[in-house]
């Protein structure tokens, strides 16, 4: 039996998915087991069938369950494995964003080092093309967020390790919004945006030179500075939202 839930629809579907996943991982719903029907789950959780449908869809995307046409939803053979998940509401705070940057720093440094020793001429060209995309955005006064994502993706692809590529893609989705806000402030200062470009250029140059130590150091430096910029951006946003006291003078 499940406890009935009270929250908005997005968090409800997350909670339902988590509760179902917990029962899958503890073996209450073992591999190959059929889940209760949508109406039954709706009644047990005290939520709409739409919420249940969204929760099942999330579990399907994670590979925990598999719908069978005309039969129902079943736990997959790998359903008991724990998927890597970060809740958006948990990852939206300033502290959480900085913690994700710390994780990115550890991974990006090694990714850059591996790319320096493994990149092919084609992959190096892709990195250089992505760097030009960042330069173009900087020159146009844009925030460069999408170009930034493509740059780091091209470096991850140059490692030849699909798991690194998937992990970075997973983490990036939690940083894009915060980075866009920070870059919108930076866009008003040419020196900030120029610094962002130069940090990326240093990584690309080290990879092109086949120098893993320099690539690792350049990537670490970039992520240290990214954390500093994100922290400053959060502070600026908080200050801007703070109500100003209106002092009346006689």
Q: What are the main properties of this structure?
A:
250 residues; transcription; Arc Repressor Mutant, subunit A; globular; 11 helices; Bacterial regulatory s, gntR family protein; single chain; Four Helix Bundle (Hemerythrin (Met), subunit A); transcription regulation; 2 domains; DNA binding; 68% helix; mainly alpha
Q: Could you give a short description of this structure?
A:
The chain is mostly helical and 250 residues long. It is built from eleven helices and two strands, in the order αααββαααααααα.
Would you kindly provide a written description of the structure presented here, covering whatever features stand out?
The protein has two domains: 9-75, Arc Repressor Mutant, subunit A (Orthogonal Bundle); 88-240, Four Helix Bundle (Hemerythrin (Met), subunit A) (Up-down Bundle). Helices cover 68% and strands 3% of the residues. It contains eleven helices and two strands. The protein has helices at residues 9-25, 38-45, 49-61, 88-91, 94-118, 121-139, 145-158, 162-172, 176-186, 190-208, 212-241; strands spanning 65-68, 72-75. Helix 5 (94-118) packs parallel to helix 10 (190-208) and helix 9 (176-186) packs across helix 11 (212-241). The chain is globular, with a radius of gyration of 23 Å. The mean pLDDT is 83.
Separation of termini?
Answer: 66 Å
What series of H and E elements makes up the topology?
HHHEEHHHHHHHH
Annotated CATH topology of the largest domain? Four Helix Bundle (Hemerythrin (Met), subunit A)
Uncertain stretches of 5 or more adjacent residues: none
Q: What structural class is derived from the secondary structure elements?
A: mainly alpha
- CATH architecture label of the largest domain: Up-down Bundle
Please report the number of helical segments.
11
């Amino acid at each position: 039996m499940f406890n009935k839930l009270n929250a908005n629809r997005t968090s409800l579907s997350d909670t339902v998915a988590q509760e179902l996943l917990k029962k899958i991982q503890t073996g209450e719903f073992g591999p190959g087991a059929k889940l209760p029907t949508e109406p039954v789950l709706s009644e047990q959780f005290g939520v709409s069938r739409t919420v249940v449908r969204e929760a099942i869809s999330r579990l399907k995307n994670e590979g925990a369950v598999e719908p069978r046409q005309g039969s129902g939803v079943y736990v997959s053979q790998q359903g008991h494995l724990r998927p890597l998940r970060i809740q958006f509401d948990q990852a939206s705070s300033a502290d959480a964003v900085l913690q994700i940057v710390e994780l990115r720093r550890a991974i990006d440094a090694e990714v850059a080092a591996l790319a320096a020793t493994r990149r092919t001429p084609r992959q190096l060209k892709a990195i250089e093309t992505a760097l030009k995309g960042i330069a173009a955005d900087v020159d146009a006064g844009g925030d460069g967020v999408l170009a930034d994502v493509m740059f780091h993706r091209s470096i991850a692809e140059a490692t030849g390790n699909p798991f690194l590529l998937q992990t970075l893609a997973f983490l990036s989705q939690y940083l894009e919004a915060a980075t866009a806000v920070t870059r919108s402030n930076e866009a008003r200062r040419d020196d900030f945006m120029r610094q962002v470009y130069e940090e990326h250029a240093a990584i690309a140059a080290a990879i092109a030179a086949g120098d893993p130590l320099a690539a690792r150091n350049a990537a670490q430096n970039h992520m240290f500075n990214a954390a500093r910029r994100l922290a400053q951006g959060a502070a600026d946003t908080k200050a801007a939202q703070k109500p100003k006291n209106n002092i009346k003078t006689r």
